[in-house]
């Protein structure tokens, strides 16, 4: 009976959390963002304030999830996510909550988002107001947008798989993130995310909750300097080498985690 009540509570809590997330985006677009825009002229300062607002809202959201006992969370190396600016934050992507967790921990975060979010009635105004980068930009335009984000001190969150992981399948990273890293000679902060038992994975509906409360672990690990990968004759070889190295890095840590 206790297990059934716990499952029912988590199911109701998960539904509330999803409604809060999407409904909250619409509320922000209609209330807090207009206030920021009224008090701040267009430009980097306005984007920075909007990003910090999202950071605070996501911190509140994660606190709510933990308080309602929908998830448990362990964080290792949180100071590494707070003490740097103008770097790439590269992470694996097992669940739908990954970007929320990272943005809750990083005060100034940028990310590359699906183009559909820009026209979303719930989150469109949010992603536009924070200056998040559309994934359908031309390569040169995308690179310049990433360069500008790093130059103004933002941490750029990148999931090199391009989408959520498929459970049971090996990680396959796309080369785009490595091209950005080597072309911009950026610092890379590696983050490993695990969830046991898995929930909110690719292809799974929100109501398909696991048999017990999931534990998320976020581990901020090694830092790499992309300049160290530039000793190759061709930059494309450096990018391929970086991809293979990080695939091995994550495979080892996920196997031991």
Structure description:
Helix 2 runs antiparallel to helix 3 (44-67) and helix 9 (176-184) crosses helix 10 (235-256). This protein has helices spanning 2-30, 32-39, 44-67, 78-82, 98-105, 115-118, 124-129, 139-151, 176-184, 235-256; strands at 72-76, 88-91, 109-113, 133-134, 155-158, 187-196, 215-225. The chain is 50% helix and 16% strand. The mean pLDDT is 87. The protein has a seven-stranded mixed beta sheet, sandwiched between helices. The protein has a single domain, classed as Glycerol-3-phosphate (1)-acyltransferase (3-Layer(aba) Sandwich). It has 257 residues and is an alpha/beta fold. It contains ten helices and seven strands.
Summarize the structure.
The protein is of the alpha/beta class and 257 residues long. It has helices spanning 2-30, 32-39, 44-67, 78-82, 98-105, 115-118, 124-129, 139-151, 176-184, 235-256, and strands at residues 72-76, 88-91, 109-113, 133-134, 155-158, 187-196, 215-225.
**Secondary-structure-derived class:** alpha/beta
Shape: globular
Please name the CATH architecture.
Answer: 3-Layer(aba) Sandwich
CATH class: Alpha Beta
| Major beta-sheet overview | 7 strands, mixed
By CATH, the topology is: Glycerol-3-phosphate (1)-acyltransferase
Q: What is the chain-wise order of helices and strands?
A: HHHEHEHEHHEHEHEEH
Q: Mean pLDDT across all residues, rounded?
A: 87
Q: What is the terminal separation in angstroms?
A: 32 Å
| Proportion of helical residues | 40-55%
Low-confidence runs:
none
The amount of beta strand, in percent, is 15-25%
Strand order of the largest sheet: 1-7-6-2-5-3-4
């Amino acid at each position: 009976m206790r297990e059934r009540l716990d499952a029912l509570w988590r199911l109701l809590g998960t539904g509330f959390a999803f409604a809060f997330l999407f409904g909250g985006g619409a509320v922000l677009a209609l209330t807090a963002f207009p206030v920021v825009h009224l008090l701040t002229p267009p430009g980097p300062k306005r984007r920075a304030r909007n990003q910090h607002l999202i950071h605070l809202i996501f911190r509140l959201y994660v606190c709510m999830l933990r308080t309602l006992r929908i998830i448990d969370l362990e964080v290792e190396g949180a100071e590494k996510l707070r003490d740097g600016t103008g770097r790439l934050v590269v992470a694996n992507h097992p669940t739908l909550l990954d970007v929320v967790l990272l943005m809750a921990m990083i005060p100034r975060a940028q990310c590359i988002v699906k183009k559909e979010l820009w026209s979303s009635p719930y989150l469109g105004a949010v992603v536009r107001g924070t200056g998040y980068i559309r994934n359908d930009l031309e390569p040169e335009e995308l690179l310049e947008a990433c360069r500008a984000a790093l130059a103004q001190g933002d941490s750029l969150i990148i999931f090199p798989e391009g989408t959520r992981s498929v459970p049971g399948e090996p990680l396959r990273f796309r080369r785009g993130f490595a091209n950005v890293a080597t072309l911009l000679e950026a610092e890379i902060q590696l983050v490993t995310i695990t969830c046991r038992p898995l929930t909110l994975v690719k292809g799974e509906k929100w109501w398909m909750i696991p048999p017990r409360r999931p534990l998320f672990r976020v581990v901020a690990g090694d830092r790499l300097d992309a300049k160290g990968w530039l000793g190759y004759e061709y930059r494309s070889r450096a990018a391929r080498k970086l991809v293979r190295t990080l695939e091995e890095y994550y495979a080892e840590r996920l196997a031991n985690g």
